[in-house]
Amino acid sequence: MILTSVPWHVAIKMLLEGAKMTMILSVLSILLGLAIGLPVALMETYGNKALRYVAMVYENVIRGIPLLAIYFIIFFSIPLLVGIGLPAFWAAVVGLGIRSSAYQSQIFRGGIQAVDEGQLEAAFSLGMSNLQVIRHVVLPQALRFSLPAWMNEYIIVLKDTSIALAIGIVELTRQATYLVSITGEPFKYYAAAAVIYLVIVLSLSYLASYVGKKYGIRGVGGANVRA
Amino acid sequence: MPTLGHEEETPVGTGHRDVVMRIENLVKNFGKKPVLRGVSFDITRGETKVVIGPSGAGKSTMLRCLNRLIEPDGGKIFFNGVNILDRNVNIHEIRSKIGFVFQHFNVFKHLTALENVKIGLKVVKGLSDDEATEKAIKALKMVHLEEDAYDRYPAELSGGQQQRVAIARALAMEPEIILFDEPTSALDPQLAGEVLDVMRDLAKKKVTMLIVTHEIGFALNAADEVLFFYNGVIWERGSPNDILHRPKREETKEFLQRIADISVLQEAER
Amino acid sequence: MSYAFIMSHLLDGLKVTLELTAVGFVGGFAFGFILAVARTYGGKVAKALSIAYIELIRGTPMLLQLYIIGFGLPLLIRHYRPTFVMSTFWAAAIGMAMNSAAYQAEYIRGAFNSIDYGQVEAAMALGMSKWQIIKNVTFPQAFRIMMPSWTNEMVYLLKYSSLAMLLAVPEMMYEASVVASETFMYAQIYLMVAAIYLVFATIILQLMRVVESKVYIPGVTTVKRGML
To answer: Most buried of B62, B96, B104, B134 (most Cβ within 10 A)?
Structure first.
């Protein structure tokens, strides 16, 4: 039984708009995750006991909570506690960004630890300061080593943008479900959405494994394999 | 045991020699590349036979054909009178009578040393736990494994200990012959020495063995016959002294010259 | 409104959350095992289907999959049987199991592949049959290697069971939102719910750590492939 009929070009436009939102959300979130995750990783590797403890707690707490809960806390709880709220879009970015940062800090930690200690010894022997060693010796290599796992994390973030529909974000999954609910035709729209996701995810996966072969080290990154 | 009923199958046609295994014209190709081009020889009970030759020539492949870990493309392998390449043969029973010691030990990582030696006895031969333990301990004593190692896992043992466990695992099955595939190549000279001592001991006890190795010193003092494997066949054969000191063929001479330096060094280190 | 009222609702939801997680994990393992066998030992068709399924599931969001099963599938069935109603719990549970299966299949395959072939050769050389080899050599090691990924998967399913809320399954997140809208105590309730998830994630981690230490054998551990 078809409830409303939607012309195909309108449907495609809606789905693509959803896909666009998915992409924007995923890119902003992964970058936020990077901005938080890398410093946390550095804190955890080079910080004193207190900093290390804070970083560890941060990681474990964020990783133990569902993304949906993080979204609700940011979108509902925090405004009530603090007085100001974020619009849904930014709440979504911040929520996913924070969640991703906890996994990214693990990835970068793995990358940092993969840098061979001998190099640090050599750098210090030259007279470099701590900060210089990190900047010129550790990070360039650590980031290269982390790249494949990081791309993997991006794929996870991309798929989890779907959860943002719970706070009203109009992304791809929401568009598909909306179209299904108003037309009563499940197969078309879900299939189309699935195809769009697959195309993006599979091409990113191939890119990630190509990059992995060129730069990665097996086992480095402590990555979330649940991609 | 099933018999084939044709005249080639009586291997004791060589007088009163008790032949454990007779290999006739073994052929094996990997794709287009011929690796075994008609290998023929036999092994008498109690004999220690050593096979030497250049790496990658096919010695490992040949050994693996003898218990059908690899299926040859042609030829016959008689084990106690039966052609084991025949389809009707119970290969698991045959394998339980042929011991195999691998270059990389292949001990079972999730079992202690003692359990490693017992498992074949329990699972393949159906012995009770007590019977298996008794035989296993006997075998472990034969390889001189330290008693406090019996309950350790392979990850906690040295390479030499692991290989000795592997030899005990083969010995405990009371096989008619034990095949060794470069048993010391993965060990550093000191640990290799322990394993070679065990093998010399077994040779003295007249355990039937076919050993592929680069250890020329061992071949000299423990082998009854040495086979030089080259170009997919047994190129030359004879007593250790004959082959190693008076080789007749050019290729044998060349090979021995090339590894002479290495083996002299290794003997010196021991 | 009393915290007791809130807690009792949340605990009702917790029960459903744990049920979803359990069904998802066990169903995922069972189906994942079949997928792994199909992919390793199956004929051309079985292998292709298995790979296609795994790539399809891994390439799309779990939420989309849950919607397809919880929303799209009933719609489709109602084309033929207008009175069809599906239990939302089972829609979510099956969706989670089907999702988990794709990942568990790869964990299983990875674990079995990581066991060096030499040990299998040695077992063959002793005279063991194929089943004897699986029972005595490969399985005992594969199962220990897989354990960390089981822990990972259980915690993952615990967290993602919250998505079932969007299918109106009365699990913990759903209960939380219901109580929150009734009491307007949004702030506290969502923080409480997050804390409960954290507690149970930690319980799972600790329990599995104990189990792993009990079956630990030195030298038989995780595949070095960045598994959690």
So the answer is: B62
